[in-house]
Amino acid sequence: MGMNVTSLTQNGLRDWLVQRATAVIIGFYVLCVMGFLYKHAPVSYVAWHAFIWHPWMKVFSFLAVLSVAAHAWIGLWTVTTDYIKCACLRLALQGLIALFLLGCLGTGLVVLWGI
Hints:
- It is a single chain.
- The protein has 115 residues and is mostly helical.
- The chain has a single domain (12-113), classed as Fumarate reductase/succinate dehydrogenase, transmembrane subunit (3 helical TM bundles of succinate and fumarate reductases).
- Helices cover 80% and strands 0% of the residues.
- The chain has four helices and no strands.
- The chain has helices spanning 12-39, 45-52, 55-83, 87-113.
- α1 (12-39) packs across α3 and α3 (55-83) runs antiparallel to α4.
């Protein structure tokens, strides 16, 4: 049995669990932001800045960005593996997706932490 190097965890059950765990993290993040917006309506710049730049919120935001990237990779990897049968085309598309998601992670890192 060959190993697929483009899969996130090389295991279907683990990919499924990561997909569900990242969905929960994304859901909690959305609820947290929506709760803040609801509680502080109308939101001032000062309140928003204090909320989003708090160290714990920055960590939570980056965790959400990581979760979105992992969630998207697993979902798009599954779709491309299932529906694109030409191996060259599938690997090229998966490579472009991986580069895009790495760019998103890098941008999130720069925006949140100023690195």
